[in-house]
Amino acid sequence: MARPVTESALMAALSFLFFLGSSIPLLGVFFVLLCPVPLTLVGLRHGGRRSVLSCACAVFLVSVVIGGPVQGYLFLVPFGLVGVITGWMLTQTGSAARTILMGTLLMTLAVTPAVTFLEKAIGLQDFAEQSKQLVKSVIEAQSRQSLPPEARLELEQMVATLTTAIRFPLAPFFLFSMFLVYVNHLVSYKVFLRLGITVRAPPDPRRFRLPLWVVALYPIMWLGYARAGGPNGTLTSSLLLNGFFLAGQLTWLGGVTAAGRLLSPDRPVPVPACLLLAAVLLPLMPFAIMLGVGETVFGALEPRPPLAAREQPAAANPPVAGS
């Protein structure tokens, strides 16, 4: 009993010190990446309950020593949350991609109301209201110019769509949560290897294959958005539009990885080349989407080998313990 309590307290203090060091020039980014890792270690070794308690201790230290409840809240969102959630993820069984998705969903459910509460707590204007004001200023600047009727109508439709999307920006919150969870998983994996602790490696994004359910979700979200009235600013339209944007981003990512497999069928494309490929395919998003959808659909139509043939390699190459 004494060792888990002592280790949890030490990890809370270490996470607090990393958060304190995040303000150091140049080295701050390094400490930011390490800040959630001690809480992840507590969750991995001693379970989610002690990880939550360790996170609460770190939040208390930040609040008392640095700058009150606001600073404590800034530590909790996102460092404390991502540390606790990643620690829980590393104790789960199943595929790494599925656990990343589950962790991202939990992080999204935690971050979305937390960010809204933080805005009110520190006196910031609502994010959606700020975005609307920005869009309004763009329209006023464009309206001073002599635009043809077609261009003006297109601009008004684009503004209505953006206003509807930012009514409840679920897609940016989801992508932000996925980025945080994945980065902390990767950093924790590297740190734990140095400490001699074996954990499951995060999935390689270059090996991402677009799931069939995302392909089906893409048109469903668009049809639902159209049936809800399109860019009318309602909450239902905003949720459906954000779902459509999110499915589109995942489909584009599937297209990028599919293009990488076409260029290098035997091994993953090197990371710099993969980033360059993503930059090239970003303005060519319709082409990338068609490529990702095509790979998924044609892959689903291919006949699968018999079950005995699929299980034979697994029997010939048993999994290594701890991998």
Could you explain the architecture of this structure?
This protein is mostly helical and 323 residues long. It is built from 13 helices and no strands. The longest helix has 42 residues. The C terminus is likely disordered.
Helicity, in percent? over 70%
Rounded mean pLDDT score: 81
H-E string: HHHHHHHHHHHHH
Q: Main β-sheet: number of strands, strand sense, barrel status?
A: none
What's the helix count?
13
End-to-end C-alpha gap: 29 Å
Determine Rg (CA atoms, Å): 23 Å
Percentage of β-strand residues:
under 5%
Which features would summarize this protein structure in a list?
323 residues; globular; 13 helices; single chain
Could you give a short description of this structure?
The chain is mainly α and 323 residues long.
Layout of SSEs?
Elements: H1 2-21, H2 28-34, H3 37-46, H4 48-89, H5 96-121, H6 127-143, H7 149-165, H8 170-194, H9 212-227, H10 235-263, H11 271-281, H12 285-301, H13 307-316
